[in-house]
Amino acid sequence: MQVFLNGQFVPEDQAYVSVFDRGFLYGDALFETLRVYGGRPFRWRQHLERLQRGADYLRLRLPFAPDALRGFADELLRRNAVSETVLRLTLTRGVGPRGYSPRRADRPFLVMELWPAPPVEAEAADGWRVIVSSIRVPADDPLAAFKTANKLPQVLARAEADAQGADEALLLNHAGNVTEATASNLFWIQQGTVLTPPLSSGVLPGVTRALVLELCAALGIPCAEADVKAEGLKAAEGAFLSRSTSEIVEVVALDGVAIKRSGVVPRLRRAYRDVVRFETTG
Amino acid sequence: MQVFLNGQFVPEDQAYVSVFDRGFLYGDALFETLRVYGGRPFRWRQHLERLQRGADYLRLRLPFAPDALRGFADELLRRNAVSETVLRLTLTRGVGPRGYSPRRADRPFLVMELWPAPPVEAEAADGWRVIVSSIRVPADDPLAAFKTANKLPQVLARAEADAQGADEALLLNHAGNVTEATASNLFWIQQGTVLTPPLSSGVLPGVTRALVLELCAALGIPCAEADVKAEGLKAAEGAFLSRSTSEIVEVVALDGVAIKRSGVVPRLRRAYRDVVRFETTG
Questions:
Q1: Chain B within 8 Å of A166 (Cβ-Cβ)?
Q2: Chain A / chain B CB contacts < 8 angstroms
Q3: Residue A48 backbone phi and psi in degrees, to 5
Q4: Cα torsion at A227, A233, A236, A238 (round to 10°)?
Q5: Is residue B147 among the annotated active site residues?
Q6: Interchain CB contact of A106 with B (< 8 Å)
Q7: Strands, E, within chain B: which ranges?
Q8: pLDDT at A282
Q9: H/E run at residue A113
Q10: What is the pTM of this model?
Q11: In which element (H, E) is residue A208 found?
Q12: Catalytic member of B147, B229, B234, B260
């Protein structure tokens, strides 16, 4: 496989970054993960916008203009001759003097590589068994708005899910409200309304989360933001998780308690596929 | 300069890590930073013990036994022919499948490299101007006990210090208590007692912090753990920061307010140097 390494295409066994890169040293980096359908990165603009917002917040410079970057992404897909795949883009602050200060670290580094796409149909058919992890996240963390390379809480929460034979783990904030899963946003259905935690609870503004809210509006399904405790979720009329790589996946159990299955989920999934088809063909 | 790269010594311009390494992708890594005096890493055992505790917590395997690692560290110092330096050791979970789950990522990767030592004498003479950063950290974060590669809050806080012409930034927890600075532990003096925030406030158990507490006991200076607000610090009889690379540095101003200078600080600094001399010679 070829990897895009800050302006060059190199074979994956030569895709290396300096051990002095601040992404490696401190997690001083952002990333985006996009699903590619038919050779086209889905919702590229929305992912790039989030990356740019994060870069602005961290005062990190994108070393390539968005259009040039898209050209490189297309070239990466062509060189690897894959069309159904996952594209990860990592932006680091690059090499600088030792210490946390970002001063004089002004050589940002950008990597794009491809990963196998998850089996969306199988995931959709089976749904996910989910646990509530013991990891707590702050509600008012400004970094929660961006996809940073500081993911140890998520790694630990996923390890808890693995240990319990579950597929995903929910993270609570310090108020005990559910925020999101380690790599997906949460939705649930209550009295016919699709609900999701507000961003202010410490939630990543997921590109797929935004699309789900758009789809609800388009389909005339009431939707709103609300806080919820784990117990509230167990009593819901249905629950699902959203993320770019897996689209929409039903939560079939929470901490071993079966969750009702709602007809809203397959409706949203069909509408999601329609948007994918519309935006990635023609 | 030569770098130790997971079992090999390589020139720094060949010291690269795979872009698929989880340290780079997710900050799924730990590190230690040690001061080397006269060619000997100071308090090696204590740093290695903290690394091992972190590795146990993250279920990360050290790929080399501590003794072998010490041999490699000594060899690294010999090859680079430096004796007054800073040694950083980074342990990552290595390469694995995509996603936060650490499952099947069982090839840990260990890097050691040297960095210039800060000018300890000059820092001690000038002291540090410190600010209270806007960044909040959770009080009960289990990861606070380890030196993880998730340092974006510290990077942001240091950037705030830079913007205000300050040398370091203090982080408050959500209760509004001061925890530590971005890369150093905090002490202050109140009625002759040396005080420092308790680990339970969300404080890294610094190797130098522990040594300062030992020195207070040895010198008969009363010391204790206590919580403090920023306002309390401004009224202290003196304040200082501790870290391996800079030893003990007086806080001369906090948010622009001059902090009293206490005779306790030079006493502790002299005692610190005595321990350094004792442990790194003969």
A1: no
A2: 168
A3: -65, -35
A4: 100
A5: yes
A6: no
A7: 2-5, 8-11, 16-18, 29-37, 40-41, 85-92, 109-115, 128-137, 168-173, 178-181, 185-190, 193-196, 223-225, 238-243, 247-254, 257-258
A8: 63
A9: strand A109-115
A10: 0.97
A11: helix A207-219
A12: B147
Neighbours of B146 (CB within 10 A): 21
**Phi/psi at A13 (5° precision):** -80, 0
Contact A124, A250 (CB under 8 A): yes
Quick check: helix, strand or coil at residue B78?
helix
Distance from CA of B190 to the nearest CA of A (A): 30
CA–CA gap between residue B138 and residue A135 (Å, rounded): 12
Chain B residue with minimum CA distance to A16: B18
Chain A residues with beta carbon closer than 8 angstroms to that of B92: 24
A142 close to A266: Cβ distance less than 8 angstroms = no
Is there a contact between A116 and B98 if contact means CB atoms under 8 Å apart?
yes
CB–CB of A162 and B116 under 8 A?
Answer: no
Is A181 near chain B, with CB under 8 Å? no
ipTM value: 0.96
Angle between helices B44-58 and B207-219 (to 10 degrees): 130
CA atoms of A228 and A177, how far apart (whole Å):
5
Cβ-defined contact of A149 to B25 (cutoff 8 Å): yes
With residue B122 as reference, give the H or E element that holds it. helix B120-126
Task: Write down the pLDDT at residue B282.
Answer: 64
Please check whether residue B179 touches A, CB under 8 A: no
CB A249, CB A128: distance < 8 Å: yes
DSSP letter assigned to residue A237: S
Domain boundaries, chain B: 2-117, 122-280
Q: Does domain A2-117 have CATH number 3.30.470.10?
A: yes
Q: How far apart are CA B194 and CA B185, in angstroms?
A: 13
- Chain A segment 222-281 residues within 8 A of B by beta carbon are none
The pair of structure tokens assigned to B73 is: 């560290």
Please check whether the two domains, A2-117 and A122-280, share a CATH topology: no
Q: What is the mean pLDDT of each run of 10 residues along chain A (282 residues)?
A: 98 97 98 98 98 97 96 98 98 94 95 95 93 92 96 98 98 96 98 97 97 98 98 97 97 98 97 96 74
CA dihedral A167, A173, A174, A175 (to 10 degrees): -110
Give the rounded distance of the alpha carbon of B62 from its chain centre: 20
**Run means of pLDDT, 10 residues per run, chain B, 282 residues:** 98 97 98 98 98 97 96 98 98 94 95 95 93 92 96 98 98 96 98 97 97 98 98 97 97 98 97 96 74
Whose tokens are 């997710």? That residue is: B26
What are the angstrom distances between the C-alpha of A277 and each of A46, A76, B11, B27? 17, 22, 50, 35
* A53, A146 contact by CB (below 8 A): yes
Superfamily grouping for domain A122-280: D-amino Acid Aminotransferase, subunit A, domain 2 (3.20.10.10)
Which residue in B has a C-alpha nearest to residue A152's C-alpha? B28
Give the whole-angstrom CA distance, residue B32 versus residue B47: 6
Report, in angstroms and rounded to the nearest whole number, the Rg of chain B calculated over CA atoms.
19
